[in-house]
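Hey,
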Amino acid sequence: MNNISILGLGNISYELCLSLIKQGFNVFGTTDNTYRKKILKKLGVKIFNRNQLNNCIQIADKIIITIPPDINGCPVARNYEEEILNSNVKWIGYLSSTSVYGNYNGEEVNENSKLRPKALVEKYRVQGERDIQEIGNKYSIAVEIFRLSGIYGNNKNIIKQILSKNIKLIYKKGHYFNRIHEKDIARVLCLACSNKINSGIINLSDSLPASQLEIISYAFNIMNIRIPKYIDYSAISKDMSPSIRRFWENNRRVNNLLLKKKYGDLLYPTYKDGIKSLYQDYILQSSNKD
């Protein structure tokens, strides 16, 4: 059972594929992104186009679904049920989001918390989870759902935003959110594929909920750059796009005790660990260029 297919080779695909290949997996995946095809092929990933999901499923023992749901739920469950049934797939890892919890006004949520989706995209996530669970129940395939917090890593991070001067400090009293480093996502998913067949729901999140202002301020401090003045959320909320406003209207602290119990300590348990590592990498890369 060493053939794994990733349906949707997105932003986290490089770290994920690298970890899986190091673990001895034959990795397959789907994408139409030309740049991603090029770098992943160099790793040894067998790439299929997005319209070849059926071929990618048929070759797999395990699959990871990163393709987001749409208005009708999970497109993989909806359109490829027969292919999954006729394959050797024994485990499905499904990447969802902590957004399914909705707003908890800063209170803590865990895997048993009631789901309170309000926005349509949050409701799509909930339906996507249900669709893939139904496939698992119907055909006795283990399904493990990973609810991810905000993803950051080498390509998308606060250090790059500050250096590009593309950053705005916003403060909303009592607002919390969690994050997760792409290398922690890769490590956990690799363990999930390698270990005994697991199932259930798990929050893939760091251990320190924090405000945006705390996170950005920490980054400015370690970079030894003067912190600009912040803007109060109430002063600009009306001018925000719906997706940005949704981030600020959802307020929760995600509990990750089950994650640590099943898969051990995180590489970057807090935003401080992650930002510090990213800045050290930036310093190293800058010195090498000189």
